[in-house]
Each structure stands twice: as C-alpha cells, then as structure tokens.
Amino acid sequence: MGRGERDAVARGARLHEAAQAVVGDHRAAVDAVRAALKPIHDAAVARELGAIPVARLQDVTEGRLRLGNVEKSGLGTVGGVLEAGPYRLRQIPGVGQRTVDQILAAARRLAEAVHETVAVHIDVDRPEPSTTALVTALHVLVEAGPDARRAVDRATALSERLGPLLTDAGPAAGRFGMLLAGREKKGRALAAVDGIRSLVDEAEQAGLPELLAQASVDLLRGSSSDIAAWVDFELRSAEYYSLLAEVSGRLPDAAAAEGFLPEEIAERVRTQQLDDSHRRVSLRGYQAFGARFALAQRKVILGDEMGLGKTIQAIAVLAHLAAEGQSHFMVVCPASVLVNWTREIEARSALRVMVLHGPDRHEAFADWKGRGGVAVTTFDALRGFPAPGGGEVGLLVVDEAHGVKNPKTKRSQAVALWTERCERGLFMTGTPMENRVVEFRNLVRMLDEGVADSLGERDALAGSVAFRKAVAPVYLRRNQEDVLTELPSLQRTDEWEELSASDEEAYRDAVRAGNFMAMRRAAYTRPEKSAKLDRLREIVREAGDNGQKTVVFSHFRDVLDVVGTALKTGPTAGLPLLGPLTGSVPAGRRQQIVDDFAGVPGPAVLLAQIQAAGVGLNMQAASVVIICEPQIKPTLEHQAVARAHRMGQVRPVHVHRLLATGGVDERMVRMLEEKTRLFDAYARRSAVAESTPDAVDVSDTELARRIVEEEQVRLGMTDGRPRTAAD
C-alpha cells in the first residue's frame, strides 16, 4: 500500500469537494430566487384574496354558511375575513363560534388554492425594488445556462457514487491506516480505491472537472448590474419565466403538459431518455415531454399552439439523435422561415447546419450527403432532391406541415415519399386540426396509415376526448393556458427573411438612388414576390386560426396599404380588417378604431402607423404584434409594443419583427443594439424618457447616411455622392 493509493484517494476527494461545491453554489442561487420571490408572491396572493367576494365561501361549503351578517359588518372579501381573524368575527351579531370556525376553515381552503395557483408577473416597464431583486437573482441562473444545470446534475450523481467510496477508502488515505485495519476493512478499502480511480479517470476524460469549475464561477459571478439584468430579461423573458416556474414548483398540470395523452402512451414517453449534450438551451417541462414524445413515437405531429417553442423541441430531438450517432437530418419549411431555422439551430445546438436553397442547392445537397449535419430546405426545393434510402436520414422535420395537407399536390407527394424513407418524422403546425378531420387524416396517413384509417368523422363529432384518444399515437397539442403557469408578459421574435429576387432588385434600385426610406420598405415594393409579406400572412393566418387578434405596425402608410390588400385574399380573406390608423386620423377617431377592434368577437387585424399608435392608445385585445421593419428610434418601437402588452395579461403578447438579411435591416439592428441598448434601457425607466423619446435616440440623419454609404460600397455602387431622400 503506497503513494499510488493515497494519490487516487486525494484526487477523488478533490473531485468530490468540487462536486459538492457546485451543488451548494446552485442551491444558494436557487434559495436567493426563492427569497426574492416570496414577498412578491405573498403580495399577489393578498391582492387575489382581497378581490374574492366573501360570498364565494358558500361554494366551498356547498351553501351551508350564512354570511349575511358578515357582509353587513363590512367584511366583503375573503382577504378581509382572514385579516379579521376569529376574535373580530365572533363580535359580529348572530355569528357563533361554530360559524366562525366554518368561515375561517373555508377561507383558508380558498387561500391555499390561491397560493398554489396565483402567477407572478414581472412588469418590465414598472420595475420596483422587489421585482429588481427577483430579476437579478434569476439572472445568475439564466446566465449560468444549461451547462450549469448539466454540471449540477452530474455533480449530484458523482457525489452519490464517490461519497461511499471515499468513506470505505479511509484507511488507504494515510500512511498507517492500512496497517491498523483488519482484513475485511482492508479489502473494502482496496476495492474502494479502484472504484475511485476509475470514477476520477472517467470524469477527467469527460472534462467534468473543468465543467464543475466553470459552473461554480458562473453561479458565483452575480449580476454585473440591475440594468444589465433587466435588459437581459427583456431579451429572453421566456427563459426567466421557465426558471421561475421550476424554482417555485408551480408547474402546469401534468395531464395538460402531456397533452392529455392516454396513460399507456404517456408512460412510454416519460421513460424515454433525452440527451442534452449537443443542446445549448434549457427546456421547460412540457417542451422536454414534446421532444420525448417525438422520440418515443418515431413519426408524429407536434401541434402546440403558437408561442410554445415547437422549434426548440425539434432541435432537442435533433440533438438527442446526433448524440446517439445519427449524422444526417432534413428540415423542410416555407422559404419565409428558412433563415430563422438556420439561426435557431446554430444558436441552440452544436449541430452543423446547411442551407439547401437557391442556385447552388444541388452542390450543397451533395456536400450534405457527404459530410452530414442538419440540412434546411424549402418544400419546392425538396422536390428536386433524390429521396433517401432507408436509414440514411435520422429525422425529417416538416414545419408548417398544414401546407402539405392536400395529397394531390407535388409538394405533398415529395414530403410523403421522404417521410416513408426516413426512420423518424416530426411534422409541426400551430394550426388547430381538430375540426378539420379530412385534412388531418391526410397528414396522419403520411405518418401512420393505421391511425389514419381508424380516424373517421365520428371522432370529431364525439368531441375532443374521443378525438385525442384516436390520434394520440401520432398527435400532441398543448395550449398556452394549459402549460404556461407563469405567463411571460412579452415574447419577442426576430423573423429573419431572405429577400426574393424581386425584393433584391427593388432594394438595389433604392440603394443606387441613395434613398434610405425606400431601402427600408423595398421588401414590400413588389407584393406578389415579397418574402416579408409572405411571412406576415402566415403569422396573421396562424393567429386567426388560434382565435387571436393581431396589430400590424409600420412606419410607412404605403406599406400598410400593401399589407391590407394582401390580407384581403387567400387564407386571411375572412378576417375583419380595421384601419389603417394613421397620423391623419383625428385622435378621437383613433380610439374609436381601437375600440371597434377590441369589440370584434374572435380574431381580427388592426393596421397602424407606428408613430400614430405608439403613444396614448391601449390596444387591449391584441396578443400578436407584427412590426414590418426595424425602427430608427428604439423607444418608438418599445412604446408601440407597450400599447398591446399592457393589457389584462390574460395571454402573453407575441411580437414578431420582420427583418431582411444582408441589407439595411441587419445594419440598423446591429448599430442600434451596439450603441443604444443599455443606455436606452436605463433611460426608458425615467419620466423624461417616456415623455420625450427623442432624447435617447441616435441621430436619424447620421444613421441613414452611414447605412446608405456602407450598402453602396457592399453592392459595388460607389460612383457619385450618396444621398438620403426622406421619402
């Protein structure tokens, strides 16, 4: 027994200490969130109880209580009853001890229910010391990211294995311990040393010590400033709310999160492992279940409502299969979301991604065939590629799958052939399909003919329970109200579009003329070939299918006219269309338009110039906001969005900003983010900034001049002096 054994034990002890430190650091960060959350949650519970009429106690006791004298005494709410307590209640004429006990028992039952269900909303426009403390505490965990969560999980597992081994190896840790140990203890010590050596070698080969060290640094770093934490919250509020739900334990109903699947299918999905080693984003519980569903059932439709992260779930499936050794994947989507898919895969995974689009798509396809990765292509381009042999492609993802519901179209036939040849298929659509059985059956047939054959019109007539049971093997849908227990008040998505050839031609003409304003709206100059307009129609259609109202903002009146004309045809033709709400509309009439918009039962669309609608109007009904182009003044954009997102918070507000790659939009976004983000975020929280948004914005003229000059150089148009026409 010598130095080798002692060194092995020492290495194991150091690793065990590092693992316990990470677990402790994470626990401290979580405890900080809980401590910051408690006063906010308690206040929300008190507000809720203070709004519940005392008559509701009748519901809890099935009408057995007599509450007339209690109400006459001035105790009109459940909160008031609890605050009064037994002594004051007993002083009310006609209220005996038994009634007091019954009233308080019923009030406490309601209070417990409220305590479990009340949601905490963080108002970014009205930060208070309590919410700032919560956002700052959450910022630590969000910044630490998935790697910290992974490190904690591995540290916990490692500690559970190393701890007992280090105890058994105790005699081998010193020079004389083994001399004093008996035969049995000595044998146990030697076996433990071998186990420690093996565990430490395995951990070091996997890079675990470095992972643990980095996690501890990230968890102990803290937030650089309150402002930085608030800015980060605005940029990725969904991650903050996801962590908040996890830490608070206020998770959605399990059955709802699992799409009300039959138990035998749900249990199979729960036992499905999900490897996160190639993934760079944390999943909410329902998202992890969705990814597991796709893996366990192999060929499925993910029909989650818009805004629940279908793309992230698909990336989680891709990452898992890549970790298992699969090398080739195909994503098929509309051209309007091609760039979004590429950026999401790059940002949220370690997977190689290739775009198969444009004149070089066949060369790119050959490269993908040889090297592997995630290929992203369009429905039309897919038709030109040879279908794979069996087992070649690990997963086929079809986004906006409702677009291939007609089996007679060539794009549907191409998707059906690829689905047949691929081991796994994941169709995605936010359009509810329950009431479109014929169309739905066509999609299901591509995935599972047996389920399609068993699905008849009677299933729709029998109601949602019968329908869900019939399609459960292939279909999973969750709604926001069922799974988002902590509703984020605002979700932002930058919709990056690749300009069509027609868009590009119009854009070049505007750049050649040095006309900055024409450059900004070039993507709408030729509506019949507009990539941005195609995406806008898709968003409006999906919002309409889900019963949501949409506000479309643009700086330009003529862009709103183009949008209005486009929405009057095709799938959006039946939606009520209001506006445009412009600067030339009198103030009183503007509010009437907004009121009419709110009064429409069901989905509707309101068109509005961002300057006219950005201040003073509350668009109380909208839950989807589309911004047609980036704004020169960031404050103007924030204020316009705030008109919708300050409504009753029944649903989160989804903001889609339409951006074109490679030109004026990309340059504007980059310049404004680099130069004004932190300062603007700070200044917007002052009364001066709210009343005078120009105070914190960069110069319009200087920004326009720089962008025009840079674009003329990029496109080889350096002859002549650039100019920036106002319109």
Automatic annotation (TrEMBL):
Q: What are this entry's molecular-function GO terms?
A: helicase activity
In the UniProt record, does the keyword Nucleotide-binding occur? yes
Query: What are the residue boundaries of the Helicase C-terminal domain, all occurrences included?
Result: 535-704
CDD domains reported for this sequence:
DEXHc_Snf, SF2_C_SNF
Provide the coiled-coil residue spans.
none
User: Where does the source fall among the domains of life?
Assistant: Bacteria
Domain Helicase ATP-binding residue range list = 291-450
User: Which keywords, in A-to-Z order, does the entry hold?
Assistant: ATP-binding, Helicase, Hydrolase, Nucleotide-binding
Q: Key word Hydrolase present in the record?
A: yes
> What is this protein called in UniProt?
DEAD/DEAH box helicase
Give the organism, scientific name.
Answer: Streptomyces lavendulocolor
Source lineage: Bacteria, Bacillati, Actinomycetota, Actinomycetes, Kitasatosporales
